[in-house]
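Risk mitigation, structural track. In case the binding assays with 2-hydroxyethylsulfonic acid fail to produce interpretable data, a predicted complex structure has been prepared as a fallback.
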Amino acid sequence: MTAPATPSAASRIAVVTGASSGIGAATARQLAAAGYRVVLTARRKDRIEALAEEINAAGHAATAYPLDVTDRAAVDEFATAFRTVGVLVNNAGGALGSDPVATGDPEDWRRMYETNVLGTLNMTQALLPALTASGDGTVVVVSSTAGHGTYEGGAGYVAAKHAEHVLAETLRLEIVGQPVRVIEIAPGMVKTDEFALTRFRGDEEKAAKVYQGVAEPLTADDVADTIAWAVTRPSHVNVDLLVLRPRAQASNTKVHREL
Ligand code: 8X3
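Fallback model:
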């Protein structure tokens, strides 16, 4: 087994979006433990400040920076404050609704495109010069299995996640030869505190049904572990795309439930 790479000084700063909860928070903790100085971004200031405090108290290094990735002016301002960046983890995003195409709310579709796709585009465009200048940059796109196949009721989210996948694939083609890797991590069913609850607008019963009878959905830590593994491979190793699902999930529509 290849030993994890020790990040060089120039590439030791990792920016994580959506770091206030779930996969983002778990990724920040794991990258910090791996030796990165992590910059936590999210809209919820109190959450990322508490997480930064926790990480710093554990002897690692973290800074909180409140940021809405859909606000391009704010993202550009962020990029001027952090000119040395080695890793960008584009994790912010999420699902809204599970309506069929026939009746889905275009406002939900727009919002999902903005947070998942344009948020990733904004951050990647703004930080690409710094990532390139580091001499060893990494862009991670946390997409989803929804970016690789569809399912009924998933359309708005599925469309946004397909777009994120295409962004990652196209960027990798366009910047080949530059010292920046583009890694896509596509998780399937992950049980976090907020993903399903947000999707169903706080309806706890509907949110619980997503995971009902599933022995062990993935956890945020499972995904963070995969992200940290991919990021800490030696610089010449680019994990293009990694799909991970719980054992009980064979496809987007084939889930084993013990009911
Ligand atoms: C989450 C996976 O199945 O809810 O990105 O689309 S799914």
